[in-house]
């Protein structure tokens, strides 16, 4: 009897494939329960079942994990996060880099920090950014990105144009939004971003 195409010799009855289909169906049911019956599902005809299973495992982990507060998560794990006003400048810089590296270990990566001093950045993280809900923080897959200028306020846009945006994008912005108060381009006062941990992909 001929072997089905792609069928491994040690699984002539395709039991692994059947088991995988059972696992996939179980994952779909669990996701549906967690999502309150609101899961939108579909499948490409040529989707590899292994890929689909891995994808659904990630979806379930995200749905189960849900939104978390990074500050609370870190404190529960024993990370010492003293108030900025309890740290002198030297201690604060040391603590900031400890925090940056801990965040990277939890797959959270910072961007656009060169306009802030160490104290202002630590204070922003301690009092604001890390106390906001974040989906996926601390999961062993995927990455979270935290842009200091990600709020899209006018102040954020001005700072971005002043310190981070290249001339070509600045010119395009002026063309599209002629009333925007475009600031002169300047070098950021600090040089931190190039040494920040980066995601692998």
**Can you give the helix content as a percent range?**
40-55%
Task: Trace the largest sheet across and list its strands.
Answer: 1-3
Gyration radius over CA: 23 Å
Task: Please give the count of helices.
Answer: 7
Q: SSE order, as H and E?
A: HHEHHEHEEHH
Intertermini distance: 45 Å
Q: What does the model show?
A:
- By secondary structure, the chain is mainly α.
- The chain contains seven helices and four strands.
- It folds into two domains: 15-37 and 46-65, no CATH class; 68-195, no CATH class.
- It has a two-stranded antiparallel ribbon. Strands 2-4 form a two-stranded parallel ribbon.
- The radius of gyration is 23 Å and the shape is extended.
Short description:
The chain has 201 residues and is mainly α. 45% of the residues lie in helices and 6% in strands.
Features:
single chain; 201 residues; mainly alpha; 2 domains; two-stranded antiparallel sheet; two-stranded parallel sheet; 7 helices; 4 strands
What's the helix and strand layout?
Elements: H1 15-34, H2 49-65, E1 67-68, H3 70-76, H4 89-105, E2 108-111, H5 118-127, E3 134-135, E4 144-147, H6 154-163, H7 167-176
Parallel strand pairs: 2-4
Antiparallel strand pairs: 1-3
Helix pairs in contact: 1-2, 4-5
